[in-house]
Amino acid sequence: MKLTTVQRYILPPHMLTALAQHGSPEQRAIALHMLGHDHSIRTVRMVQGLQVNHHHLSVQASINAEGALHRVIYDDHGTMDLPGECVRVEGQHAIGDVAANEAYDALGWTHALYLQVYGRNSINDAGQPLDASVHYGTQYNNAFWDGERMIFGDGDNQLFNRFTCAIDVIGHELTHGVTEDESHLAYVGQSGSLNESISDVFGSLVKQYSHQQTAEQADWLIGHGLFTDKIQGEALRSLKAPGTAYDDPLLGRDPQPAHMDHYMHTVEDNGGVHINSGIPNHVFYLVATRIGGFAWEKAGRIWYETLRDPGLRPTANFRMFARLTMANAERMFGSNSRELAAVHEAWTQVGVQIPAFAKEY
Amino acid sequence: MRIQMRTEGGFAYIPGLSRPTILDSATLSPQESDEIQHLVSAVHFFDLPTLQEQTVHGGDQRTYKITIEDGVRSHSIQVTDPVKDPQLQALLTFVQQHASM
Ligand SMILES: [Zn+2]
Fold first, then answer.
1. Number of domains in chain B
2. What number of other Cβ atoms are within 10 A of residue A81's Cβ?
């Protein structure tokens, strides 16, 4: 397709998406811009030395209206009435509310990572609008995905700040939607811990992508800035060093294990889904740092393909998931690749034995 | 009346914060004590099913386990965010604001 075609016609989102993935560098830059990724276009320009033709800016709004990237931010004004008042929609300028703007921007980055790196158009890969509600409840210390939207509390300002303050929190919640769309990993026990881990992994990748950080440069923290300065802790979780994110007189110590020897058997938290996620989280960190470079390119691709693998069942445990990451690494990079070796070594290091044959599960 | 509540799960799940909190109406002011009695009867707490209806979708929702003892009666329920019944939410909010570890 020639550039002039892009200039003259308003393309449907799926064509823009295809161009963004497979077009020439120029076509990619323009398609991405038309898809509404303002900030990421700067990245593309930076990396590839491209100049963007400003004639294309004028068609951006009409393209967005077709739903390629369509963010809608609602304000609950301290109530629990969902969705709340609509305060900012796609293409509108920033408003006078920090939380609403943080949600808007971070949803943009999350959408950008999924589209530009993995060719996925939103939660359902069909341009689903990204709805978020901020200022949910009063002193509400949580963020969640309810199956339709992302919901963020303001925190109590004693322990927690507002939950939109860390970009990876928003990437984490949106990824729950992606996981639900692809695999229905049951939210309990090991499958639930995998579900949680996938959200932490892609949440961290969104942050790394937005900062253009390599695996070595990234902090691998989840929820950095979420604790108030009264709390002794730098974040909620750490993929690099599970169990070290906080150690505080009131909160206690980060309970995440980094090895199967310390897997926590508990009935709380659906069987410790936010605790035992530390094990697969650490595996991803090990794989990404062994491979090196930008973690979203190879390690992230292996994890994304595993998430989409029809063999990933709702009741998958760590061993089954590990086997699938191996199979996908082998398929993409070859049986003698260092990528496959990195995946195998990482699972072994955390004490997860990988079944040799698929029939074992 | 004695209310025990335990909050579990959530994106920011921290086991150290999920210890049960207790609210004893005897420690409340007469006005607050009236208010909690009213909230409990308005929601027909002792007739609520043990497991409240909840969606199978989503992630990071918090779950609340509430037990109320009142004279010879005792009943426990479990409910997950977002709480659909506004009267149950009002009860939850009151307990959160007045209970102590
Ligand atoms: Zn989660």
1. 1
2. 14
